[in-house]
Amino acid sequence: GAVVSQHPSWVICKSGTSVKIECRSLDFQATTMFWYRQFPKQSLMLMATSNEGSKATYEQGVEKDKFLINHASLTLSTLTVTSAHPEDSSFYICSAPPSRSQGAFFGQGTRLTVV
Amino acid sequence: GENVEQHPSTLSVQEGDSAVIKCTYSDSASNYFPWYKQELGKRPQLIIDIRSNVGEKKDQRIAVTLNKTAKHFSLHITETQPEDSAVYFCAAPPRGYSGGGADGLTFGKGTHLIIQP
Fold it and tell me: Under DSSP, is residue A88 helix (H, G, I), strand (E, B) or coil?
């Protein structure tokens, strides 16, 4: 199946700093990638859709200036959490969209802790 | 957009018994329904999915049933084992899915399945 690789798997940063999370499709080209956020003991919530070569689409309530998404190539999408605050601490996970023959595959996820 | 409701939030069953988790969705145009298993601290893993042209799909101990008229689908796990303990999520696309994937999934709130030895 499709392989999605996400890095880093965990990161601790200070309040006010920025953190970049990378999501790579290893054996396929992805014109679209999805970014989700999952708080402890909660479900996955779609944050934004990353589109190769164009602007990302953000879900209602997600600040686009805080969560910067770049999809510069068909194999790489990045999410940058800018001016991080403790409330941004969460599990961030990317996924490639489902295809006709297989379901959506997720990256390993990134556990972000802002101190 | 799509609204996905999942029940129960917690399910405890004896090892060897069956477990059933149910989800309802709101968008009648949705035609793809995956189920994911997530262990603590790990990524969700697709365990089974169903498309709207069938009413049931089975893979060994796992099965999914779909009732498009009632807009609900269910996950069935038979002969449960300790390694089945995890959080299970259902999901649905926000509108009719026809391949290629233009929209992210809407997830249910999850069911914490506990298998009692």
Answer: helix
| CB–CB contact A32 B101 (8 Å) | yes
Q: Environment class of residue A15 by beta-carbon count within 10 Å: exposed (0-12), middle (13-18) or buried (19+)?
A: exposed
Confirm if A49 and A32 have CB atoms less than 8 A apart: yes
Q: Tell me which of A7-11, A61-65, B49-53, B110-114 is least confident.
A: B49-53
**CB-based contacts of A55, cutoff 8 Å, min separation 6:** none
Nearest CA in chain A to B47: A103
Decide if A50 contacts A77 (C-beta within 8 A).
yes
Nearest CB partner across the interface for A104, out of B100, B105, B110 = B105
Strands B10-14 and B111-116: parallel
Inter-chain residue contact A103 with B101, CB threshold 8 Å:
no
Q: Does A62 touch chain B (CB under 8 A)?
A: no
